[in-house]
Amino acid sequence: MAEEHIAVRHFREYLRIKTVQPKPDYLGARDFLERYAKDLQLQFRTLEVRSKIASRSLTNIISRHTDVVPVSEDKWKHDPFAAEKLENGDIVARGSQDMKCVGIQYLEAIRILKQAGKKPKRTIHLTFVPDEEIGGQDGMRGFVQLKEFKDLNIAFALDEGLANEGKNYKAYYGERAPWWIRVKAIGQAGHGSRFLEPNATIRLINVINRLLAFREAEKQRLKYGRKEDGRMLTLGDVTTTNLTILNAGVQVNVVPEVAEAFFDIRIAPTVDLHDFKEQLEEWCSADG
User: What InterPro entries does the annotation carry (predicted)?
Assistant: First the structure.
């Protein structure tokens, strides 16, 4: 049996580290990446709050996140954290596409450059950040606010994209903005035998219907709309809206005081975010 490629071996090892939310093994990921960096004779630093990184010249940064989304193991044919390699070469694991594969590709690209004696004109910083799958509050968002990030003097940043098959690569220069919103409606609580007003669930349903009508309009625009040059619109050209969580009520015969819904909205690059926020506020306030 042929020896497994070093990139594949490292990829599978990375996949076996359970960085799954909500309790990701970030220490395991850090230890793995530190060993990787030492193997490539790269400088390695774990940054929490204090660091002495400083750079006066322009630098580049390429970034990946280490955490992955939760998994329903009973829906998988293979252990999602075993990184099994199938006969056709496929590797099955949570995080194999989003985004541990690209993290390994970055590191192996550096190995190839170093072996070829290539030296980039600018310093390249690799960041492996936590928390991306749950909003990045304690990951990249916190990092960019630190003095240590500003000291890097970043001129160009490259982050998550789509995989490319073959040797032709696509460069993405625009991305939809993710907005995760919670809509909370409050009404009069009481026994289920009465017509209670204001009614929290009815108020929430009205807002939901407005958002779902917008969703359907964008869905039809994706299906039939065209760009200025005549090409059909793609998913990245429209705003997607999905109702992901609904919460209301404590038991079947009690009208709830509070009802709430969560939406995952991905806003197209052409949409003015201020205008969209005003539209959301209008939809939410229409029922008082």
Answer: Aminoacylase-1_M20A, ArgE/DapE_CS, Bact_exopeptidase_dim_dom, N-acyl_aa_amidohydrolase, Peptidase_M20, Peptidase_M20_dimer
3-state secondary structure 193-258: CCCCCCCHHHHHHHHHHHHHHHHHHHHHHHHHCECCCCCECCHHHCCEEEEEEEEECCCCCEECCE
Domain boundaries, the chain: 6-158, 177-285
CATH number of 6-158: 3.40.630.10
What's the whole-model pTM score? 0.66
Annotated binding site for Zn(2+): 65, 98, 133, 160
- Active site residue: 132, 148, 218, 237, which one? 132
- Decide if 192 contacts 249 (C-beta within 8 A): no
CATH number of 177-285: 3.30.70.360
Q: Do the strands 59-65 and 154-158 form a parallel or antiparallel pair, or are they unpaired?
A: parallel
Q: From first to last of the 288 residues of the chain, give the pLDDT tens digit.
A: 578 899 999 999 999 999 998 889 999 999 999 999 999 999 998 876 434 444 468 999 999 899 999 999 999 999 999 999 999 999 999 999 888 998 998 999 999 999 999 989 899 999 999 888 887 888 888 899 999 999 999 999 988 877 677 888 777 777 899 999 999 999 999 999 999 999 999 999 999 999 999 999 999 999 999 998 999 999 999 999 999 999 999 999 999 999 999 999 999 999 999 999 999 999 999 886
Does 175 qualify as catalytic in the annotation? no
